[in-house]
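A quick word before the example. In earlier lectures we treated sequence and structure as two separate objects. From today on, think of them as two lines of the same record. Here is Lanthionine synthetase-like protein written that way.
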Amino acid sequence: MSDPHASVGTRDTRWAQSLADGAAGTALLHLEQGEEPRALLQSMVADPVRAHPDQATLFDGAPAVAFTLAATRHHGPLAVLDRHVDAITRSRLDAAHHRIDSGRLPHKREFDLVAGLTGLGAYLLRRHTPDRRDTPLADVLAYLVRLTEPRTDGLPGWWAADGPTGPGPDWSGGHGNLGIAHGIAGPLALLALAMRRSVTVPGQAEAVDRICRWLDLWRCGTGDRAWWPGTVTRAEHTAGTARNHGPHRPSWCYGTPGLARAQQLAGLALDDTARWRFAGRVLAECLSDQTQTTRLGDVSLCHGWAGVLHTAWRAGEHDERVRDHLPRLRDTLADRLRHDRHPPHGLLVGEPGARLALRAATTDTPPGTRWDACLLLDD
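And the structure line, produced from the sequence above:
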């Protein structure tokens, strides 16, 4: 790792205020290790934080800076940043409700974890305390409940108007996104986590159940060797079946680990023992399947070994079969960190995120900085 006290003056504002691949995410590793990464923290606020509602997200701009500073002793700027986050959230909510009122389909960045309202909700839930009741967290949850309500055209309310990466001929009818980073598993995890912390709005349990039942419709495989596609096309939706192209790469962002964890949380929130135990068995089978794990190409939290390890470590708190895989996953990640090249900065895609996951699994201790709240993996 690079020196956290080294100059970062040559970096741009976007890098400084990024959880995904910049200073904000890197600072969390040093904070978790009990260090004070002064240069990184200063770089985050050296320029005005980006707080435009169309640009700021959990992983970029004011919410990302706020998420990082919430893990420090420097809470002075948080009051200002929280006002920015609240204003961004309310603006995004107004636009989302106007879109629903018009009958139009959403774009996934309206609601997803990485760029949308689920991500802002994740920050608000991380900051929630009994004496902080004036945040828009309940409004985010109420919006997500509304998002799950059936449409008259038979599509789920979260059906995205275009493709996973934008318009394209293969996505002329839009798509249904299942992943935790960009799809409906993210709202599912947030709604479930909020329920487990007694933060609820009318219809929340029903919304969790609706999402779970939709995921059941697209479950592939047999028995505990189940898996879910990352996306569903309009043609697949019409046919009622997904193309049999096999399991997605077993990642946090799109694959079985993230989807299983979201459903485990849902089962725990609903007191649905069969669902959360099934989710654990599916995850354990995924982790034991080398044809899936050999598709992992890097150490990252987003789509690599660190994401699998940390998801399994969190899910393993409720399932011994999942915990049995932790030593092997931990050793594999440690070996990859020793021998592979990886980006030196960032939580989602860089070495810091991988080292945070390795630290949690090695110490078997919940992160003091609560860094994994941005992944909706904490419990």
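Notice the following. The mean pLDDT is 94. We will return to this example when we discuss secondary structure assignment.
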